[in-house]
Amino acid sequence: MADGEGDPAVFSCRSLPSDPRLMATVTNAYLGTRVYRDILHVSGVYNGAAGDTHRADVPSPVSVRMAVPGAHGLAEAFTLNTRTGTFSHVLQSADYAATHQLYAHHSLVHLMAFSITIQRSPHTTQPITVQLQTSFVPKSQDLELKRGPDFQGAHYVYGRTLVPEVEGGPCPTVHMLWTPVPPALTLPEEEQERSWEFLTAVAESEEEVKRSYSQGLALAAAGSLHSSHVHAWAALWQGCCIDLEGPLPLRQALYGCLYYLLSSIPPQGDSGFLFHGISPGGLSNGTQGEDYWGHVFWDQDTWMFPNVLLFYPGAARAMLEYRIRTLEGARRNARDQGYQGAKFPWESAATGREVCPEEIYGAQEIHITGDVLMAFEQYYYTTQDQKLFREDGGWKLVGAVAQYWCSRMVWSEQEQCYHIKGVMPPDEYHHQVDNSVYTNAVAQRSLNFAADVARDFSVPVPEEWVEHAKKVKVPFDEERKYHPEYDGYSPGELVKQADVVLLGYPLMHPMSSEVRRNDLEMYEPVTELAGPAMTWSMFAVGWLELKEVQRAQSQLSKCFNNITEPFKIWVENSDGTGAVNFLTGMGGFLQAVLFGYTGFRITRCSLRFNPAFPEDINKLEVTGVSYLGNKLKFTITKEEMRIEVTVPAQDPLASPLEAVLQESGQRFPLCEGQSISFPMAAGWIQRLSTE
């Protein structure tokens, strides 16, 4: 799909950004770095105790830059190709081209690699030398590194982090092998072209790091190391894509957001390591003092997760498994505050214990616990994966969250309902408030979901779950017909970020169109203009629900203030402050298209759709939507909607699907290899009815 020139998935420039934080990132689910940065990070490897815990800085052997000092007439180009997950730097003269390619291997997650290729022009014969500049030193402020014996030509260091996250806890071990980098490379006069490959392998054991390095060497020797990485990315894009006929900047933003988010998820199949979640700045960021120290927030569960779930439920499951593994830490958090069940930390690292440096957030921003469970709910209804809940710990987590909410509520004799007191809502400009409407609504949703799962599993539903869900206060102003943010909120008070508007989406809290509109109009003008990037996406989704497409677009256009050139790195705040490579903002932006333009909503029994998009978009294609084991492709124009099953459900227990139109009730069976089409309308996808 094209509108304007250039491939929307390839970002090129002649000069690099002056701010190194805005460099492209090369990341897989286990390793990550910013281009030309002298450190890399490893998933789950943190150093420091409690609020001081941060991603451990590992010295980066791939921080290398080509140079040809004194050369004249040298053209330079830098490119991030999001289709291949590869960063490249080209030096071009009349006599030669030198190309540097860098990548974190998507499927062989313990490997990062770069290559240098020198190719001479036909008329030249002299040797060509390219310098390799690096500041790499095998030392770290976070690891006690020791030198081991060389292995298959690679240097070897290993060591543990210095300080455990919790007293008496483990200090993760890092083992690293890397190909030594010479100060220069020369193409001899008798050769036309030559490539050199440089590998870095990182793992938590000597056995794994040697296995990974050997595997990389074998692929490099066969000339297929980079091509195997490119193939993995091609398969990734084949399984999921959002593209549209519309403005080039919008298409570029979508490819950029998808690239950075997909870079963070585990590869399909058994990846051979435990996934430790996604932090706001991703694995490339999170050193001490930057990007929230690499901690995991609600950003993962609320802002990134729905996009991953709709395309790659296996990766979404890994995100939930991270929360299950940290359940005991969450139980400890609840006990420490005097409550039952499990309270997930506002900031999480390896253990699930609270690691937020500032106590107020960990103590009061408790909506995180409901946000985590909402991700489990969306997963359950999209996949019907009962194994995660029955056998793999999901049900224990659900029950522990329900128990927490019941213990956190107090009965108000005066109002004859349950209150949740002393919290900080998503709007962090306010704290120690009672009955945050978002917090209470997400708690209610947690309890309703817990009861639904119990019924599905024929488990007795505790009466207190039903009672607390039914009687928790969800503030509402009957006179003005809107939701106050909390008890005592005065209309016009400044709000930091999307808060009440989240009731409509993603919470889907029951309300009329009038109330939905009133909430949007009440909070839009008083929301901090320079606040976090994900905010305006949620206002856009709200206006799209109401078919106010131009108002939606005016909100979504604000997001472009957070996208930096040339590599489409997002900053948290439009003034450049906050986290960089802000995956949270990218996740919100993707949801505005993936759930906003399409109207997708995940419900207990269906995947609903109700498309709406603005005048400058003529066609939207969403490829690879996963629902109950099937893969679907949606093609939407202003006149027509087309749905195709590209991959049928592999699970013999999964039923075939049908599309149902809301107004007419018309049903269309969805069969592999066949597409159905109908005039633009609202409806839903569900299991094929046998009635």
UniProtKB/TrEMBL annotation:
Per the UniProt record, which residue ranges are transmembrane? none
Keywords (alphabetical) are: Glycosidase, Hydrolase
What Enzyme Commission number does this protein have?
3.2.1.107
Question: Matching Gene3D superfamilies, A to Z?
Answer: 1.50.10.10, Maltose phosphorylase, domain 3
Using the UniProt record, name the top-level EC class of this enzyme in a single word: hydrolase
Q: InterPro entries in the record, alphabetically? A: 6-hairpin_glycosidase_sf (IPR008928), 6hp_glycosidase-like_sf (IPR012341), Glyco_hydro_65_M (IPR005195)
A Gene Ontology cellular component where this protein is annotated is: cytosol
Give the classification, highest ranks: Eukaryota, Metazoa, Chordata, Craniata, Vertebrata
**Family matches, as SUPFAM superfamilies:** Six-hairpin glycosidases
Q: Which reaction does it catalyse?
A: (5R)-5-O-[alpha-D-glucosyl-(1->2)-beta-D-galactosyl]-5-hydroxy-L-lysyl-[collagen] + H2O = (5R)-5-O-(beta-D-galactosyl)-5-hydroxy-L-lysyl-[collagen] + D-glucose
Give the family per the record. Belongs to the glycosyl hydrolase 65 family.
- Gene Ontology annotations of biological process type: carbohydrate metabolic process
Pfam annotation, one family: Glyco_hydro_65m
Q: Where is the Glycoside hydrolase family 65 central catalytic domain?
A: 284-490
What name goes with this protein?
Protein-glucosylgalactosylhydroxylysine glucosidase
Explain the purpose of this protein. Answer: Catalyzes the hydrolysis of glucose from the disaccharide unit linked to hydroxylysine residues of collagen and collagen-like proteins.
- Single GO MF annotation: protein-glucosylgalactosylhydroxylysine glucosidase activity
**Gene assigned in the entry:** Pgghg
Q: Which organism is it from?
A: Eubucco bourcierii
